[in-house]
Design a protein that fits this description.
By secondary structure, this protein is of the alpha+beta class. It contains 6 helices and 6 strands, in the order αααβββαββααβ.
């Protein structure tokens, strides 16, 4: 887990604020017992987690697609090619939504703004190390060359984040 105590507290405040502002329908389904705490979110989102990321076209149509997500310091990060449709959308309209939905019993959804980062910047050294820890064991040492080849990453600065957890015996 990469999160500090301050990261976990900030994430918990975001989760609580988001839940308080959620609609009645969501709050009827996502009871307190079915919500994850910030610490549980950080524990569950280790390594690479698949996300469905939604951006929007210039005329407001949503487009979504899968991306590798890495949860680091209380934020989802994702990568793609700099010339990808998703990064072209983000350059003009940075608002995104993303959901991690590995199975019926777990969902983590975030709505916010994508902020493009430079994984070569010393300020991002911790995140870069986290990426290497995830991908080098999977793809080998050459993955660092791929990382340095121009792949782009963005962090989602969440305005809202929702969790849903229902143990399999309840489904």
């Amino acid at each position: 887990m990469h999160e500090t105590a301050d990261d976990v507290a900030t994430l918990q405040a975001l989760l609580d604020r988001s839940f308080e502002q959620a609609g009645e329908h969501f709050r009827r389904i996502t009871t307190d017992e079915r919500r994850l705490t910030a610490a549980q979110v950080c524990e569950r989102l280790q390594g690479m987690t698949l996300l469905v990321l939604a951006t929007s076209t210039r005329d407001g149509r949503p487009l979504n697609g899968p991306v590798d997500g890495v949860f680091y310091r209380g934020h989802f990060y994702f990568g793609s090619a700099p010339d990808s449709v998703r990064f072209r959308h983000i350059a003009r309209r940075p608002w995104v939504s993303a959901t991690h939905l590995p199975a019926e019993e777990l969902a983590v959804t975030v709505h916010g703004t994508a902020v493009v980062i430079d994984v070569g910047d010393p300020i991002e050294a911790g995140f870069r190390t986290a990426l290497l820890d995830v991908y080098v064991p999977r793809y080998g040492e050459q993955w660092e060359q791929f990382l340095d080849s121009g792949v782009q990453y963005a962090r989602i600065d969440a305005q809202r984040m929702f969790t849903f957890h229902m143990p399999p015996e309840e489904t």
